[in-house]
Amino acid sequence: EIVLTQSPATLSLSPGERATLSCRASQSVSSYLAWYQQKPGQAPRLLIYDASNRATGIPARFSGSGSGTDFTLTISSLEPEDFAVYYCQQRSNWPRTTFGQGTKLEIK
Amino acid sequence: EVQLLESGGGLVQPGGSLRLSCAASGFTFSSYAMSWVRQAPGKGLEWVSAISGSGGSTYYADSVKGRFTISRDNSKNTLYLQMNSLRAEDTAVYYCAKDTPLYHTKYYFDYWGQGTLVTVSS
Fold first, then answer.
1. Quick check: B108 and A46 CB within 8 A?
2. Beta strands B78-83; B92-101: pairing state
3. Which of B60, B95, B109 is the best residue to mutate to test the A interface, defined by the most A CB atoms within 10 Å of its own CB?
4. Is A95 within 8 Å of chain B by CB?
5. Tens-digit pLDDT profile for residues A21-70
6. Rounded distance, CA A21 to CA A9, Å?
7. How does DSSP classify residue A81?
8. Residues B19-75: pLDDT tens digits?
9. Closest CA to A92 of A28, A24, A49, A22
10. Using CA atoms, how far apart are residues B66 and B15, in angstroms rounded to an integer?
11. Which residues does B55 contact at the CB level (< 8 Å), separation at least 6?
12. What sign has the CA pseudo-torsion B91, B93, B94, B97?
């Protein structure tokens, strides 16, 4: 099983600051990695797919990078609605898939 | 507009059974694989099972293999998850998710239902 490890577990920042979230895979997943945002009581929402492509309707302040085993989600300037939990997901061994344990982005 | 609506969750005793349904609309259901993903209270996301668009191929996480059965009725645009021999650790919100289109691989979950809560407790 491919294990995804996200860091940090919690990130405390203020609106307007830049957020950098990390996801590391236990083996190469090429670029088959996605990022999701989840707010309390809601289903996850796809933000980034194939490591660096924004999903439909996702603001340009969200960007993804990386390949192989190391990936980054960057939010260039935090808006109040961006404070949520973020998960990475790999689909290298499709149709099976695994998720990271999540990073909680909280208001400082 | 794509919509996924789960139902069938509830309280069940350990060892019991439950069948979840996911009614889909807004896309050609039979042209897409579908998946179930669960989330235990306060925890992260765990993929449970997937099924091909035709229903001919099914896949399971090791944690549910032999106990859960995924199926679909393309004439009703509905996905199912039959859960048997339920355990306390199966307690979670269960989401259905739109997965990969036919003749493709390695897509992502671009649409999710709102989830249905399954509680396994005596």
1. yes
2. unpaired
3. B109
4. yes
5. 999 999 999 999 999 999 999 999 999 999 999 999 999 999 999 999 99
6. 9
7. G
8. 999 999 999 999 999 999 999 999 999 999 999 999 999 999 999 999 999 999 999
9. A28
10. 13
11. B71, B72, B74
12. negative
Report whether B29 contacts B43 (CB < 8 A). Answer: no
Token pair, residue A48, equals 């980034």
Give yes or no for a cis peptide into A80 (omega within 30° of 0). no
Residue with tokens 């194939």: A50
Amino acid at B24: A
Altogether, the residues listed in chain B come to a count of: 122
In the DSSP assignment, the letter for residue B30 is: G
Which residues pair with residue A98 across a beta bridge? A90
Sorted by sequence, the CB contacts under 8 Å of residue A64 that are 6+ apart come out as A33, A35, A47, A48, A51, A52, A53, A54, A71, A72, A73, A74
